[in-house]
Design brief:
Elements: H1 24-29, E1 36-37, H2 47-53, E2 54-56, E3 62-64, E4 75-78, E5 82-85, H3 93-97, H4 103-112
Antiparallel strand pairs: 1-3, 2-3, 4-5
Amino acid sequence: MGADRRGAPALDCTRCGACCCNPDENRAEGSLDYVEVTPRDAILRHANAVSRYVRRDDAGRTYLRLDAGQRCVGLRGALGRSVRCELYALRPAACRRVTAGDDECLRARRERGIVA
């Protein structure tokens, strides 16, 4: 797992998955619209992936589909233990922007009880 430049253990995304869960703020508002899929995202050029992983809201905007537990349907495994993304190569820009250890990552980890 390595360490960062301060000697702290590096955050391992394949053992986490917290950023793939709808944030508490969205849940409190009843929102299922977490990760937007834009027209430029590669996933929209793959009909099978769209039917499996993408949903449209009433206004026609597209988002990654969430399961009943509010996790992205493309996430497999146990949060905080071992996870993988089924659509990693096709993941939208919003997913690509998340960086291990950034504010969004650390917030998601706290919300899911995953110690950094």
